[in-house]
Amino acid sequence: MGTELVHRSARGVGLTDAGRQLLPRARLLVSDAARFEDEARRIAGGHDAPVRWGVTHGLGDDVVVRCVHALRDADKARITRVVTTTATTTELVESVRTGSLDVAVVEHPALLTGLDSGPVLKIRRWVVVPEDHPAAIAKKAQVRMLRGLILAAGPRSDNPPAHDLFVDMWRARGLDPEVVVSTGPRDLLVRVAAGGTFGVTTTPPTPMPGVSWVDMLREELALRLRIVWRSGADLGLSAGALDRVLLRAGR
Fold it and tell me: Dihedral through CA 158, CA 162, CA 163, CA 165, nearest 10?
């Protein structure tokens, strides 16, 4: 097109102003080309086609890593390349529906129109509180002890049905806390360590300054998950591998 994108000098090669402006777009095109190639391989049934899976932010890193390993080894005839996406349940459902993802682990309940899904699976969650809070040292902590603390939870837009049930569960037990948005597991723990905030996590009790894990309401607080995939898609190996990992994690 007659536009110079790079210039050469005695010092080497550099981008022109036009080149710098086009660089972000060029990176997107390269990324899109890679996704196009992966999709073509998947449709053609190529042996090197990756499994593109997604997982909700709420699932702990230890379980996510086990899921990746299980997907990698799901096909006994070969090692499968695994591409992982972490996103909100709403985003994951839409990505599976449009074909951007093959399979995903999402929170239950969620609107799953047009998708197939497995049974509801439960992963244990703990309440996390500031280490100097009375609930942290109580022999048997009670919900009422959390009064005065702010509840940190994911945005309602992540998955409105599950978010509403979570907040209503606390209210049904006499706790109506102020709710602030937590952007993820790390942000939750940072807020709790700073004081005045509590939340729930699937991460097992871990020595951590400023944070204590409290065991209460096991059944009510369990993270409920489902494995979803496009209707009619042949994803038995992948869905089965994820199901086994989540079943073991929930015991």
Answer: 170
Which amino acid belongs to residue 36? F
What domain count does the chain have? 2
Which positions ≥6 away from 118 have C-beta within 8 Å?
Answer: 226, 227, 228, 239, 243
Residues 115, 120, 125, 127: is their CA dihedral positive or negative? Answer: positive
Asked whether residue 35 is assigned to any structural domain, the reply reads no
pLDDT computed for residue 63 by the predictor = 96
Centroid of chain to Cα 93: 12
> What CATH number is associated with residue 173?
3.40.190.10
Question: Cis (ω within 30 of 0) for the bond into 109?
Answer: yes
pLDDT tens profile 158-191:
999 999 999 999 999 999 999 999 999 999 999 9
